[in-house]
Amino acid sequence: MSSVPATGPRPKLSWSDLAGTRAGIWGLGREGHANLRKLLALGVEPVLVDDRPAGPVGPADSRRPVLATADGGLAALQRCDVVVKTPGLSRYRPEVAHLSAAGIPVVGGLGLWLAEADLRRVLCVTGTKGKSTTSSLTGHLLTGLGYRCMVGGNIGAVPYDPANAGDFDFWVIEVSSYQATDLPCSPPVVAVTSLHPDHLDWHGGVEQYYRDKLSACSQPGAELTVANGDSGLLRAHAGLLGPRIEWVSEHDDPAADWMEPLALPGRHNRRNALIARRCLAALGVPDAADAAALRAAAAGYQPLPSRLTPAGTVGGVSFVDDSLSTNVLPTLAALDAFPGRRIALIVGGHDRGIDYAPLAAGIVAREAPTYVLTLPDSGPRIRAQIEAAPAPQTGFAGVTDCPDLAAAVAAGYRWAQPDGIVLLSPAAPSFGFFKDYRDRAEAFAREIRALPDISR
């Protein structure tokens, strides 16, 4: 087996090719456990390695030991024919280069699955933000139109996990930038919802992030990329979007009303729905052109959690949970989703060093009353960018650093009275302060419940 440089050709190995090999699994998160179940189903007993092993894994009657990467694990992987890496481990780590230099392919589970899937029935959806909503929308519409559809990948089910076996007509696969670096091929249709700097520590720089993120559009098999035509960054990187592009704008098809049952706020979500419909057409779904059929299929859609989700009303003030916003782009879209409304915006969290100048420019340009409450660690940098931004519109009401979420919720509630919105849209991950975005959303809900209702 040949080695795989991080930015070079990727081996088109499939899961079936791993039968009878000495295989290693590196990383035991959600996808790592699916990798284990898949290899065991193939009759392969893999070596298990993790950076921070939490103990043996597997069924209670046959627990398997896990080696630490730095304590014998890397040496064990070097004795393997192939290593199946979890997406969270950067492909640019020196250990990956070390294994590749030794002639050991380092592959990903999703890439192994795509290598032998019927790609005509697979849609890959990527993008810095919006990919989860667009994936879930597309899957919901396909199901509503009578097709058996799995929504998986970075969202939902792992498509190759034996626990998720089933007979499906279509697979809608959300692809993260991490997963994209492991793909040896592309389905004929790929959707890209947005592009903005993100995960720079994993990828080693912004341009490498763009190349990695968009590589899902241009591997062997790629034919059409359905892309966000309102993104200047995507248009500037059109050369990375594969052989053919169809641009979709939020302003397209202004008379369309089939998406009304989705009840998703914001112009960005209108564009996400239009991208989903265009992907259905590209997949050859006849009803993609039937507005009545689409409207019926759209009924009953359940929005994903912590994406502009109503979190309650206290004393006339509405609270909105957008905890999954970990970047500038979705926070700007969240503000745009409530035109003319008075908003107390809670931002800040784990500081990945991203540029907050575009967020500051969008905040101070907002005409409706807007008050910003920042959280550690990135809060002071956000405040500094706001203070350095061009002269604000009359709606900008100031920015205040808060020590924690409780203080921010209380201050936002006081300012937003009598009928404003307190919007948690952090533009930053939750690392170091909460377990994940769900934990942050639950903390937000607890602080809301603790507020006094002045209307009583």
What report would you give on this structure?
This protein is of the alpha/beta class. 31% of the residues lie in helices and 17% in strands. The protein contains 16 helices and 17 strands. The strands form three sheets. Strands 7-8-6-9-10-11 form a six-stranded parallel sheet, covered by helices on one side. β10, α9 and β11 form a beta-alpha-beta unit. It is globular. The N terminus is likely disordered.
Coarse morphology: globular
Radius of gyration: 23 Å
Assign the structural class, choosing from mainly alpha, mainly beta, alpha/beta, alpha+beta, or little secondary structure.
alpha/beta
Distance between the termini: 71 Å
Task: Classify the helix fraction into a percent range.
Answer: 25-40%
Low-pLDDT residue intervals, each spanning 5 or more residues: 1-7
Comma- or semicolon-separated keywords:
456 residues; six-stranded parallel β-sheet; six-stranded mixed β-sheet; alpha/beta; disordered N terminus
Describe the secondary-structure layout.
Layout: E1 23-26, H1 30-41, E2 47-50, E3 67-68, H2 73-77, E4 82-85, H3 94-101, E5 106-108, H4 109-114, E6 122-126, H5 131-144, E7 149-153, E8 170-174, H6 177-180, E9 189-192, H7 200-203, H8 206-214, E10 224-228, H9 232-236, E11 245-248, H10 267-282, H11 291-298, E12 309-314, E13 317-321, H12 328-336, E14 343-347, H13 357-364, E15 370-374, H14 379-388, E16 396-401, H15 405-416, E17 421-424, H16 437-449
Parallel strand pairs: 1-2, 1-4, 2-3, 4-5, 6-8, 6-9, 7-8, 9-10, 10-11, 13-17, 14-15, 14-17, 15-16
Antiparallel strand pairs: 12-13
Helix pairs in contact: 5-10, 5-11, 12-13, 13-14, 15-16
